[in-house]
Amino acid sequence: MSRTGALIRSIDKLPAELRDSASAAERAFAGGLDAAGRLPFAVTPHFASLARPEADDPIRRQFFPDPREALSETGPFALPDPLGEGRYRVSPRLVHQYPDRVLLLAGGACAGYCRYCFRRVRMSGGTSFITEGELEPVLSYLAARPEIRELLVSGEDPLTAPDRTLEGLFAKLRRAAGTLALRVCTRVPITEPPRLGPATAAMMSAWKPLRVSVHINHPRELDAEARRALGFLSAAGIPVLVQTVLLKGINDSAETLAALFRDCLDLGLKPYYLFQLDLAPGTAHFRVPLGRGLALYRELEERWTTAGGKTAELPPYAVDLPGGGGKIRLSEQSIAGTENRPGGPVCLLKGPDGSLWPYPAESA
Ligand SMILES: *Cc1c(COP(=O)(O)O)cnc(C)c1O
Questions:
Q1: Rg (Cα) of the chain, in Å, rounded?
Q2: Is there a contact between 90 and 103 (Cβ–Cβ < 8 Å)?
Q3: Is residue 124 very low, low, confident or very high in pLDDT (cuts 50, 70, 90)?
């Protein structure tokens, strides 16, 4: 079984071209991340190999520490827990926000750190894979609630754990809740594709109903190795969903998004959500303003249907209402109005129950 390879944890360990592309400011900032308690620098050799040395390269920007992170760390809109997971935490590792599905923070590690991560604050501390003791309350919670239909195995990246660890987890979850559907949330097929071979796909396939949700942001992430890893899942009959985060300067063009979703569909993957960025500290420079995001989505729909595609093939544009209001689909109708707040103008987003949730109207 393949294992997660060693992560590159300093700029000096990057391939020469990338290493030499670091500006003095980037170097200084990256060097001080750990001491400042910021999200560490880590990237897999595979993901780094996809990057080009230009500062605005869409792959490089996703993992290269950027001094701009410091500018919005404590801004008026920065939320350490942007999804409000703390509000719905029913045990240290279980989040229950929607009636029939729960999210397990399985922990472990990530195969590299995305600079725009919404769990940035939690990641900076690091967690271990869920222990027996931590799983105990999860299992009794599930056993007592047959209305829970699906469990998302998330929280860092579960595929950084060995197959037998995952299998042990799946077995215990199923023993507690016999018909529970599993959704494994991961970026490993993109960041560390050799980890996902036929053996892992076969293991997961034995635990159906099981789906895999993969985080993919840019067509260039789907290189030959990633396609092969994803192909093992499809060959094993495992449905694969794709989640994409709208990121300024990375994928914020209708052309790039259309190319990404076309590639996903051609590979048999289902584009599932296009997410507006969450308000994690230090990520404001990745934020596409809501108005621009909505215009972009309309442009994407038009481009897509003009090319003969069906709008149902596109993922909905969605946002998690800041602080725990849940996921909503974004459209022009989601914005009840704008307001000036001390930190700057906000859009008031309509929650499912009519409640209003401020989201900054501008980017950084
Ligand atoms: C996103 C999410 C889910 C799953 O929602 P889907 O719309 O089915 O993808 C479940 N629980 C939490 C806490 C979530 O954030």
A1: 20
A2: no
A3: low
Q: How many Å lie between the centroid of ligand 1 and the Cα of residue 88?
A: 12
Q: Is 327 in the pocket of ligand 1 (CB under 6 A)?
A: yes
Residue 1 has pLDDT above 50, yes or no: no
C-alpha to C-alpha distance for 297 and 290, rounded to whole angstroms: 10
Is residue 122 pLDDT above 80, yes or no? no
**Short-list 136, 149, 130, 271, CA closest to 209:** 149
Q: What is the 8-class DSSP label of residue 4? A: P
pTM higher than 0.85 for the full model? Answer: yes
Strand order across the beta sheet in which 335-341 lies:
335-341, 344-350, 356-360
Widest Cα–Cα separation across the chain: 56
Full set of structural domains in the chain with CATH: 4-334 (3.20.20.70)
Which residue's CA is the closest to the ligand 1 atom numbered 12? 103
Over residues 202-232, the pLDDT tens digits come to 999 999 999 999 999 999 999 999 999 999 9
Residue nearest to atom 8 of ligand 1 (CA): 101
Whether residue 156 contacts residue 108, with contact meaning beta carbons closer than 8 Å, is answered with yes
